[in-house]
Amino acid sequence: MGTGPDVLSGRQAVRIVVAKVGLDGHEVGARVVARGLVDAGMEVIYTGLRRTPEQVVATALQEDCDVIGISILSGAHVPLLRRVCALMKEHGLDDVLLLVGGVIPDVDVQPLREFGVDEIFHPATKIDEIVRFITANVRSGPGDPEQNGTS
Question: What is the pTM of this model?
Fold first, then answer.
């Protein structure tokens, strides 16, 4: 799933790893969001169901992604996302956005942000809102002309 470089800007498409962590088997939402991101010109690597935090971070490293998007509905979001954030820090993925989608109780939002989650999207969030957030917040990387002085 994906696109190549944007011919007009010289930038690579934003690369996003979309994952389902833990025992959560509900993947329709993740697939809908992944398709919407592809339609918006982003490159999506979907890892499939029941991934461990270690598998998600390993995929992010291997794919040199700009964003990790985790869909979780199992209720185990706090320990799983704490582990993902710790692994991202351990592997130097400070420049990778971490987005979470699912049913996240309000009481858990602040702790998740403190771990390092950049944004939380609840059910019924419009794809355009997710795309706008990613576009506005993706961090500079090697394909970014502004970082390379070519803009």
Answer: 0.86
